[in-house]
Write a structure and sequence with these properties.
Layout (H helix, E strand, L loop, with lengths): L5 H13 L2 H8 L3 H15 L4 E4 L2 E4 L1 H25 L6 E8 L4 H8 L8 E8 L1 H9 L5 E4 L11 E15 L10 H7 L2 E4 L4 H13 L5 E5 L2 H9 L4 E4 L5 H6 L3 E18 L8 H10 L1
Helix pairs in contact: 1-3, 1-4, 2-3
């Protein structure tokens, strides 16, 4: 493959992602015929058709999907190399961190503590859904992603998920609800609960627990955002089922109380990276610091 024309490969990649030859030609300031010739020459070199036309849209063939996977890897590695080497010799380093939008802000602060206030570090923080964050990680637009569930891993998705923290999950609510140490059954019988949504691992653990105990608690709210659960608990909507770290400030101030640690229920936190030729040098000390806590 020493005589592969990488200009042809770059044009192919652009068309494959756009799915439209005309639009790509306009974006690259090329004629449609010139772009078609580039793609045709690449197909001849590879010995396979890379696109098939369905109506006005171009769709990748099986060979085209394989070629695109390799093209993405090749050009992403090049972009990564340029960005990494541009930082060489600079006094400040950037680290791009993504976090699940619903993840506890208190947990995120604890994770970032090793680099907070450092004059030589620029932190770029992003939030989003799991799929958005992992996509950005694969595209090398993020250096590390914080999630509460490890992503699926296989030979095609080179994610590295490190389990960095685990905390108990408790019933948390206003002091007027009773005293710490009250029986779990009594608490759930007397007060409604604020629960994470069904997609949450904590929710499935809670459902299993109450089923074992033969309890049917009243549900005040189902929420996919820990910050909102915290606010609802503060407003007295019910007992929130969440890790105490989410309400660390309220527990210290006494505006909320941790009534009971739910037996066997924990929430895990993961730091996810991707295999890179030039990993961000700031990641290792952060992960090492977390593992030592």
């Amino acid at each position: 493959m020493s005589d592969l024309n990488y200009h042809h490969l770059r044009y192919f990649r652009a068309v494959a992602h756009d799915g439209n030859l005309t639009r790509t030609a306009e974006r690259l300031n090329l004629s449609q015929s010139a772009l078609s010739i580039q793609i045709k020459q690449l197909e001849e070199r590879l010995g396979h058709a890379l696109f098939e036309r369905r109506g006005r849209q171009l769709h990748l063939t099986e060979a085209g999907r394989i070629a695109l996977d390799h093209a993405d890897t090749i050009f992403s590695a090049g972009e990564e190399l340029v960005e990494t080497l541009k930082e060489t010799g600079k006094t400040r380093r950037a680290i791009r961190i993504g976090a699940l939008a619903t993840l506890s802000r208190n947990f995120q602060i604890e994770f970032l503590r090793p680099i907070l206030g450092r004059q030589d570090v620029d932190m770029i923080l992003r939030s989003g859904s799991t799929s958005e964050l992992l996509g950005a990680l694969e595209d090398l637009n993020l250096d590390i992603v914080l999630l509460n569930q490890a992503p699926m891993a296989d030979s095609v998705t080179p994610f590295i998920a490190q389990h960095i923290y685990q905390q108990r999950v408790s019933l948390v609510g206003r002091p007027s609800y009773g005293k710490p140490g009250a029986r779990l059954g009594d608490l759930l019988a007397e007060h409604p609960v604020i629960l994470p949504t069904l997609e949450s691992g904590v929710r499935s653990q809670f459902e299993a627990l109450v089923a074992r105990l033969g309890l049917t608690p009243q549900i005040a709210a189902e929420v996919d955002d820990m910050a909102m659960m915290r606010l609802l608990a503060r407003e007295g909507a019910g007992l929130a089922v969440l890790p105490p770290i989410v309400v660390k400030g309220e527990l210290e101030a006494g505006t909320l109380l941790e009534f009971d640690a739910l037996p066997g229920i924990t929430e895990s936190f993961y730091a996810v990276t991707v295999k890179r030729r030039f990993p961000n040098a700031l990641i290792e000390p952060i992960l090492k610091s977390v593992s030592l806590r």
